[in-house]
Structure formats: structure tokens, C-alpha cells
């Protein structure tokens, strides 16, 4: 098969796979929010990650036997950033509205290309950030604002003082942006299975240390809580991060960040299907702006994805 054709098919598969994962994350957003009534935030994350890490270690046991020391170091960094992002996001979600949490976490689509332009922060070989990527990120960010804020809310209100939950959500966006850049570097040093398993093992370890130090953990074991752990651990974590580790071998971090911007859109679709919540004209405009951002971002790729420095596999 022509390498160029194969490259395009791989890139398409990577985009579709990540869209599927973003749909899963978007649909489980309400599940996590509801579960925080029965379990403290950090404990919920800890058990979720322990379950997911156990699954991936079992699935990737053969590959993990071939690990090298440099792989452990890369996995530890990615796992720590993942733990930091999730702890901040869940703690913030318990202290602010779901809309504010989604809006502030969505800043990752702007932060990634900006951090990527800083020497030492960018993924290997990315060079200077291109203007289409920045414009696409800004469009997607504007879409998130329209999609997640209540109808009639002036955007200028967001310039006010942040609550504790809003601040945690904002810091979460920076942590997830650094995680995306770190995982883009790590994909060049190990397989997708090794990376997915390692980052979750280190993430679970970090959360196990943080939980008793940062909160008084408690839970009420309910059917809803157990179901939430199963759904988020198996589909939203073990499967999702395995796919993401593979996807980022073939897509730039800026494209990944923009696709992740669709998460609030999927959350709204879930609300529409299961709770009958309809999209307002404001929300519809936001969804359209996000898709416009994706299209504009694609203009920055003048060569096949596999030929871009950041997208080369190891």
C-alpha cells in the first residue's frame, strides 16, 4: 500500500478513536458529579485509578517485562501530572458548578499550544506553534464558553474573582495541558500499552499518598457508586488512556487538545438523550464554534500527519 495512503488512514483512525474516547469522557461527567454525594472526591479518584491500573497491568504484563529505566522515569512524570489534573478537577467539581468546571477545564485547548511554544515545554520536534493552531484553539475556547455558560450570562462576569472550585478547575487545566505535552514526548520511548499501564500505576500511587493527607476520606457504598467506579475505571480510564497513548503517536498535541474540547458537547448530548435537556441557541453556537476550531486547526497541517516531527512513532 502507498505509504501516503496508509498515513492518511492511520491519521483518520486516530481522530475517530480519540473522538470515541472524548464521547465516553463527556458522557461520564454527570456520573462522576452524582457519585460525589456518596464518596469524597480524592477517594473516588484513588479507587478508580487503582482499578484501572490493575486492569492495564494484567493486560500488558508481557510488555511491562521489557521495560527500561528511562521508561519508568517517563511513566512517573506522566502519571504524576495525570494524578494532579484529576485531583484538581474532581476537587473543583465538588466545589463549583458543572458548567464552571467544564468551562475552566476547557482552557486546556488554549494552554497546550501556548505552552508548546515555550522551549523545553514543547513535545520533541514541534518547533514554533503555527497561527492556525492558535486561531483554532481560540475558536474552540470561545465555543466552550458559549456551550457551558447559562443562557443570558454576560461573558464579562467571568473576569470576576474565582471561587475555590473555579481556581482548582483552572489549575486542573494547566495540569492536563502539561500531561498532554508530556505524553506526546513519552510516546516516542515506549509502546502504547506500556505507557498506558505505567502512567496509571504511578497515578494510582500518587493518589494513594495524597488522599489521606488532603482529605478525610469517607464513602457510602451504593449501587450507583459501584457502577460509577466500574464505568469510569474500565471505559473512562483503562480503555481511554490506552487509546490516547496510541493516538498521540500519530497526532500533534495541539490536535489532541482541540478534539478534547468536544467533551462538553458530548456531555450536552448525553443530557439531551437521558435527561431531556435541549440545546439553547447559545449552546448550539458554542458547538458550531468548537467544530470551526477543529477545521481551522487542520489548516496548520500542510503535510501528512506521519511526516510531522511530533507524530513520528518510535
List its salient traits:
mainly alpha
Set out the fold topology:
Layout: H1 3-27, H2 29-35, H3 41-59, H4 61-64, H5 69-93, H6 98-105, H7 108-116, H8 131-148, H9 164-186, H10 192-214, H11 223-247, H12 253-260, H13 263-275, H14 281-298
Structure overview:
- With 314 residues, the protein is mainly α.
- It has one domain.
- It is 72% helix and 0% strand.
The tally of domains stands at: 1
Integer average pLDDT? 78
Number of strand segments: 0
Structural class: mainly alpha
Contiguous helical run count: 14
List the helices and strands in order.
Answer: HHHHHHHHHHHHHH
- The best one-word shape is globular
Helical amount among residues, as a percent range? over 70%
Compute the CA-based radius of gyration. Answer: 19 Å
As residue ranges, the low-confidence spans are 301-314
Beta-strand share of residues: under 5%
Q: How would a textbook summarize the main sheet?
A: none
For the termini, the CA-CA separation is 21 Å
Give a short overview:
This protein is mainly α and 314 residues long. The protein is built from 14 helices and no strands.
